[in-house]
Design brief:
Elements lengths: L2 E9 L3 H8 L2 H7 L5 E9 L5 E8 L13 E12 L3 E9 L9 E10 L2 E11 L5 H20 L2
Antiparallel strand pairs: 1-7, 2-3, 3-4, 4-5, 5-6, 6-7
């Protein structure tokens, strides 16, 4: 069993608004890539058992080696449990030759009402050993900050 990483953020939007941003292709392309990356969804099937394929590209690949190529991380995501507006479970597999990035990482997005806001907690289980905990938590925090910016201005 691999490592578990967890990051939370209070977002000034309803759980339904946040949930919808987790299941909208254009929204994901806008907010999911962490700082320093852009993202493109290549395949989209938003239902349990469906999923998406995302190509994340480093804006400056120098010093940021990708998992798939020097400048990219490609990840196939399968949707597991989708419980509106409480939870989204994703199973992520990185396209990589390095076995340190192999395996299935499960990411659960928990959405809990907090007054007029939503506490969003991302729990990543079985994180591949090639992804450092500090970098992973920083990346998740960056994606949550992007999500907050995306839904709070909506």
């Amino acid at each position: 069993m691999g490592r578990t990483d967890r990051v939370s953020r209070l977002i000034a939007a309803s759980p339904t608004t946040v949930y919808n941003a987790l299941l909208d292709r254009g929204a994901l392309e806008a907010w999911l890539p962490p700082e320093g990356m852009s993202g493109r969804v290549e395949r989209w099937d938003p239902r349990p058992g469906g999923g998406f394929r995302m190509v994340l590209t480093y804006l400056d690949a120098a010093g940021s080696p990708g998992k798939t190529s020097e400048a990219t991380d490609v990840v196939d995501i399968e949707f597991g449990d989708l419980v509106a507006p409480e939870r989204v479970v994703q199973r992520a597999v990185f396209e990589a030759d390095d076995p340190a990035f192999a395996g299935v990482m499960t990411m659960t997005w928990h959405l809990v009402p907090a007054g007029e806001a939503t506490e969003v907690t991302v729990t990543a289980e079985d994180v591949p050993s090639g992804i450092s905990q500090a970098d992973h938590e920083e990346g998740i925090a960056s994606s949550l900050a992007n999500l907050a910016s995306y839904v709070e201005k909506a």
